[in-house]
Amino acid sequence: MFDTLTDRFDGIFKRLRGRGRLGDAEVGEVLREIRVALLEADVSLEVVRDLVERIRARCSGAELSKSLTPAQQVIKVVNEELTATLGGEAFRLAYAPRPPTVVLLAGLQGAGKTTAAAALALWFKQQGRHPLLVGADLQRPAAVEQLRVLGRGVGAAVFSEGTDPVAVATKGVEEAVRVGRDVVVVDTAGRLAIDEDLMDEVRRVAAAVKPHYTFFVVDAMTGQDAVRSATAFGEALDLDGVILTKIDGDARGGAALSVKHVVGKPIAFVSTGERPESFEAFHPDRMASRILGMGDVLTLIERAEREYDAGAAEKAVERLRAGRFTLEDFHDQLQQMKRMGPLQSVLGMLPGVPKEVRDAQIDDRDVARVEAIIRSMTPAERDDPSLVNGSRRLRIAAGSGRTTSDVNNLLRQFKEMQKLMRSGGAMGAAARAGARKAKKVKGGRVTPSLKDAGSLR
Ligand SMILES: Nc1nc2c(ncn2[C@@H]2O[C@H](COP(=O)(O)OP(=O)(O)OP(=O)(O)O)[C@@H](O)[C@H]2O)c(=O)[nH]1
Ligand SMILES: [Mg+2]
Q1: CB 250 less than 6 A from any atom of ligand 1
Q2: Residue 60 sits in which domain range?
Q3: Whole-structure pTM value
Q4: What CATH number corresponds to the domain at position 176?
Q5: Distance between Cα 115 and ligand 1 center (Å)
Q6: How far is the centre of ligand 1, averaged over its atoms, from the C-alpha of 273 (Å)?
Q7: Which of 228, 262, 291 finishes a domain?
Q8: Domain shared by 320 and 304, yes or no
């Protein structure tokens, strides 16, 4: 995700780090590089100009801090301004005082509305709400069935009937009141902005149910062009925010960075995959640090908290930190990690993971092989891999259907990993940052920690 930009910033900051004082010429050069990087990422020209000017103003003006090196100061400014471009504050959803809270989704064909509707239902459930999905897309014969299947998957009820979209939406809200559901998510038909009839239909649906929130769903992979289609929707509907989908397939990031400016509305949620679990509330500051290659430990921790049993996330961090980490723990971690999504995306959120590692093609099947080997070991062997002698190696290899050299490789790599953690390498650092931030979150305030970014790299 957004690899192009992350790579470019990686290069720019790496060169900066080698410098002492930064004169106007050096700052100018950095700004030029940032400008090119953003344009290559398909960020709208106006956004690029505006962003670069804001960075320039703060870098040439003496915004000096004794505790930061010039390079760190530039990174700090870029981080803050990028956060502002992405919308600044995270979107906050307030529930209607008189339930149900009605949410309407609209957008172009194939943008990901139906997928997002189910994902939103899951998200609301995780917030302790009781959502009802309403299928008001009667254009495509299979659309309601698609919503029913997805709804079943996330354990949310689905309401629809074969009348017309306005009637379905209206009855859907009534049904929610009747059965005591406190949130209604209305899925509508995909439309082309030029299709007046369809635009009129969604306008009438909105007029009938008076949604508390109307989200424009847009596919990040179509870049800033798709964002422009928002104009037609913005004229027809009173938009509150944007749901940016398929950012897993967007190597550039142009849509994400242009949305706020072009649509005039913030990104409320992002979707990073087809599964309903791959959906999260959007946090501009976290996205900025992900783009700048500084990782996104907070989102990782949140996912961990969501997917782990209570307390397990913290325990894992503790064990990592203490360097007491056995193959048994490793196996547990693999299980938990798998629940957090493909490993590649998890790695992208860890700070300090070198570019080479981020870029390595990680095959989730490799993980299955590793698991098989660990499962073929006895508890004692998992606790102390040095027990594994020649004959045990043979037994483990046979048990897991791998070769003895596969077993050897795993043991060697595990030993290196343990060493790396003890010395505070990437994972150890991530764990420490995680523990620290987890504490801050509990304290109620989260401050992006820039010194971390400097020292972690
Ligand atoms: N990779 C990826 N695929 C996604 C994401 N969101 C949706 N998709 C896929 O995109 C395709 C279209 O998604 P839908 O949810 O059916 O889109 P829609 O806007 O409801 O489409 P219409 O109802 O035809 O307008 C499906 O194959 C989804 O699985 C995402 O975040 N990442
Ligand atoms: Mg749909």
Answers
A1: no
A2: 3-85
A3: 0.72
A4: 3.40.50.300
A5: 6
A6: 9
A7: 291
A8: yes
Q: Which pairs from 166-171 meet CB under 8 Å and 24+ separation?
A: 166/201, 166/204, 166/205, 166/208, 168/134, 168/135, 168/136, 168/138, 169/104, 169/134, 169/136, 169/205, 169/208, 169/209, 170/208, 170/209
160 touches ligand 1 (CB under 6 Å): no
Task: Give the atom of ligand 1 at the shortest distance from the alpha carbon of 143.
Answer: 23
Last residue of a domain, one of 235, 264, 291: 291
Structure tokens at 163: 């009348």
Same domain flag for 141 and 44:
no
Q: Residues 172-192: pLDDT tens digits?
A: 999 999 999 999 999 999 877
Residue nearest to atom 1 of ligand 1 (CA): 273
pLDDT in tens, 266-301: 999 999 999 999 999 999 988 888 888 776 666 666
Q: How far apart are CA 186 and CA 132, in angstroms?
A: 9
276 lines ligand 1 (CB under 6 A): no
Task: CATH number of the domain at 437, please.
Answer: 1.10.260.30
> Residue 274 is which amino acid?
E
Residue 146 Cα: closest atom of ligand 1: 16
